[in-house]
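Hi everyone,

Forwarding the result from last night's run.
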Amino acid sequence: MSFSSEVKESLSRQAAPARHCQLAELAAILGFSGVWMETEKGKSYVRIQTENLSVARKCFTLLRKTFNIRIDVSVRRHGIYQMIAYDGLEAVEHVLIQNSCCRRAFIRGAFLAAGSVSDPEKSYHFEIVCDTEEKARQLQEMIASFAIGAKIIQRKKNYVVYVKESSQIVDLLNVMEAHVALMNFENVRILKEMRNSVNRQVNCETANIGKTISAAVKQIEDIQYIQRMIGFDRLPENLAEMARVRLEQPEATLKELGQMLNPPVGKSGVNHRLRKLSVLAEELREF
């Protein structure tokens, strides 16, 4: 089962205690996966289709709880669940979403009907597909009321409300009251961030080691060139000592080299002497 399916399975088993929240969640499910129609005699009905059994079960439960009306259920080809509900649904068509609890329920219903969330092990992406721009804007505003910055993109004939920031996806899961999924998501996110942090640190240390080795190789080449061309006897005593110590300790750090000098000097002092040796080597090469 995908992570998205796990979230929907969990949400489908939740029951909003208040009728107004049940109406809000049902309004979203019908609005995002239902088609409103009329019979030849002018009676209205709604047809809901979904590939997800959890969503079908949740929709059926909400319809029975809130309206206790006749519902015809069938399974179509390719695992499509279809429900047709008759009479008394006008309240759902015109439901007002004002309370915070109802907005949570509406977003939950919209996600159940037309949403998906990627496995956090692979990427961070939450989206709900809307068939009109008006629905997308309405949903975006609802999500924004919880301080979450969802964006909208057009994909073929649909409008997709999406969030890519991992922390905001966590907030959305909390808004929908998908608490188990939220904990699983957070666990994966924390582990990924720890792995990334360790990798960055290792890469940084590796790069620093590479730079240190390259610098040491260049220093030794310069010192050996000076030794061949003029010897160390013609160098000032502090540079001659530095040259000998560097040749004897090719793997030592600047700090370690400084402690080997008499008297000891700091890293900046060692670096200064090595730079002088490098400049001298370049001057000798030019002759």
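The chain has eleven helices and eight strands.

Cheers,
N.
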